[in-house]
Design goal:
The protein contains seven helices and eight strands. With 227 residues, the protein is α/β, with parallel strands linked by helices. The protein has a five-stranded parallel beta sheet, sandwiched between helices. It has a three-stranded antiparallel beta sheet with strand order 3-4-5. Helix 2 links the parallel strand 1 and strand 2. The longest helix has 23 residues.
Length: 227
Amino acid sequence: MLYNPLFQNREAAGEELAQVIRSQLNKQAIESGLKPIPIIYALPRGGLPVALPVARLLNCPLKIEVAKKISHPQNEELAIGAVTASGSVIWADNRIFRFNFNSREKRQASLAVAMECAKSLEAQLSPACSQANAQGATIILIDDGIATGMTIAAAATALKKLKPAQIWLCTPVAPQTLIPWLHRWGEKVIVLATPKSFLSVSNFYAEFPQVETQEALECLQQQSVKK
C-alpha cells in the first residue's frame, strides 16, 4: 500500500504541532481564567526533534520520559508491553494482541531487558534536560507518532506520579481507532492526523531517519541553554 507523506520531517511536524498546542493552551487559559504552566516531555529519541519546536514556541522546559517496548522473546518486532526507566509498566491486552506468552519467567526476562535499555538511555540524556518542577504543571508529552500507544501510555503513567495538573498526549500522527484508548492516559489528546489505514509511523514522513543519541542530546542542550 502506498502512502502520501503527511510531514516532511520530524522538525516540520513539530512546528505544526506547536501551533495547535499553543492554541489549545490559550483556549484553556481563557476558559478557566488560569494560565497553564507547560512543561514539555519527549519520548526519546524520536520524540525530541518533534518536541523541540514546541518547547521553543512556548518558551518552556524540555525534558524526557524514557519508555521502551517489551518485545516478545520469539519476535522482537511484536510489542507485548512497555516500561519506563522508573519501572512503570503497561502490558498488552491478550484479547487484542492475542500473543501466546504464558511463561511468567520469559515475560519478566523481556521486561528486564527493556527496562535496562530505558535506564541506559535515560542516564545518557537526563543530564542535558532542563530543570523544572512538574507538580501542578501541564505536562505535554510528545512522540513522533503513535502506533500501539503502549510506550506513551507507560510514560504517562510514570509522569502522573509527579502530580501534574494535567497530562496532554500529543503527536503528529496516530491511528484513528486508537484515539479513544489514548484518552485513558491523559486529560487531553492532540493528534494532527488520524489515518484509518496505519501500518507504521514512518509511512507518514517523507524523511524519517533514526535519531541518534548525539542528536537527541543536542535537542535537549539547545532548549536548556535558552532557559
